[in-house]
Amino acid sequence: MRHRIIVLGAGYTGAIAAGRLAKRLRPEDVDITLVNAEPDFVERVRMHQLAAGQDLKARPLADIFRGTGVTVRIARVTAVDTDRRTVTLDDGGELEYDSLVHALGSGWNTQGVPGTAEHAHDITGRAGAQRLRERLAGLSAGQHVLVVGAGLTGVEAATEIAEARPDLDVALAARAGLGDWLSPKGRRHLRKVCDRLGITVHEHTRVTAVEADRVTTADGTVLPAAATVWTAGFAVHPLARSTSLKLGDTGQIVVDETMRSVSHPEVYAVGDAALVMGPGDKPLRMSCASGVPTAWQAADALAARLTGGKVPRVPIRYFNQCVSLGRRDGLIQYVTADDRAKDAALTGRIAAVYKELICKGAAWGVAHPTLTPTRRHRVTAARPAAPARSAA
C-alpha cells in the first residue's frame, strides 16, 4: 500500500512542502493530499497591496498541482487526532495519514485589546484585506486611517495605503521607536519615507481600546480612525492545541532541526506553525523568510526517511529583511544569522525592485512545484502500523 502523506494548509510553506515531496517521491509509492480552505494560493506577503486597491494574479491550486501527483482537497480542517492519525474536515470527510505536515500558519493577534475584533481590520489573509479594501474605497478625502503596529507588516501597510490614497490622513502607532530594530541608515530612510508620504507617526504609543471611529492609548489620548488596521503581531493557528502534540507557550509545535515533532515522529510542522530554534538558540520569527526554508527542510527530511537517504540538517539562518515602502521605494536591511541588524542597508527604488523580485520568486516556486529537475526515489521504509482505534 502507498504511504499516505497529508499536508495541512496551502500557503507558502504547505504548497512548497507538497510540491517538493511530489518532486522527490515516486507517485506509485505515495498518496500526497494537500488540504486548504480556499481554492487559490494566496500571496500573503502582498495583502497590503490588495487592501490598497491593487489586483493580484489568481493562482488556482488545481492548476498549480495538476499532473504533479498531489491531490488538492478544498475543505477546512476542524480536527486532527494524532493518536488515530486522522484529519477531520468541515465537509464531513475524514482522512487517514501515515505522515502529516502541519502548515496551517497564523492569523492576526488582537492581544485581547477591547474592540479590536469588532472594529479593527485584519490583513493576515485575503478576506480581511478585501474588507479593508472596501472600507478604504468608501472613505472620503481627509478621513483618518490608523495602522496599529509598526513592525514589517504595519510599515508596509501604512506606506502602501498612504501612497495609493494621498488624500487620506494616514497614521502609524508604534509601541516603541519607529524602526527601532533597524540600523541607523534603515531608520533614517524609513522616517524619510513616512515624512514624504505624509504619515503621522505616534511613537511609544500603546493602543488600549478600539472603537468604530477612534482608538484610545494607554495615556488616555484619543486618536481618530475611520479605519483601524491592526498589525500588532501574529497568533498561531489554534488547531494544534486540541491535539496531543508537544507545544511551546505560543501554541507552536515543538520540532527538531528537521522540522519533525519531538513528540510524534510521523508529524512535521513548518512555517508559523513550528517552534524552530535558529542561530543563537533563538526561535525563528513568524515570517516568509523563516517559513520557506522550514518547508524545504521538512520535505527533504521526510523524503529521505522514506527512501533511505541521508537526512539533511541544514541550519536555517537570516540574511536580510525585505520591506516594501509603497510601489516605488523599499528597504533591504542586512542582518546577522540570528536576525540582528547590520550597518549595511539598501534603500530606495533599487530596494523596491529587490523586494519585488523576492516576492515573485517565492510565488514562482509555489506555482511551479515540480518544474525544476530532480530524481524521484522509491519509498523503502516500512509503512507504520495502523494505530489502535477505540471501540465505538
From TrEMBL:
One of the record's GO molecular function terms: NAD(P)H dehydrogenase (quinone) activity
Cofactor(s) the protein needs: FAD
Gene3D superfamilies referenced in this protein's UniProt entry, alphabetically: 3.50.50.100
One of the GO biological process terms: aerobic electron transport chain
Span of the signal peptide: none
Annotated keywords: FAD, Flavoprotein, Oxidoreductase
Homology family: Belongs to the NADH dehydrogenase family.
Protein name as annotated: Oxidoreductase
Originating species: Streptomyces fumanus
Lineage summary: Bacteria, Bacillati, Actinomycetota, Actinomycetes, Kitasatosporales
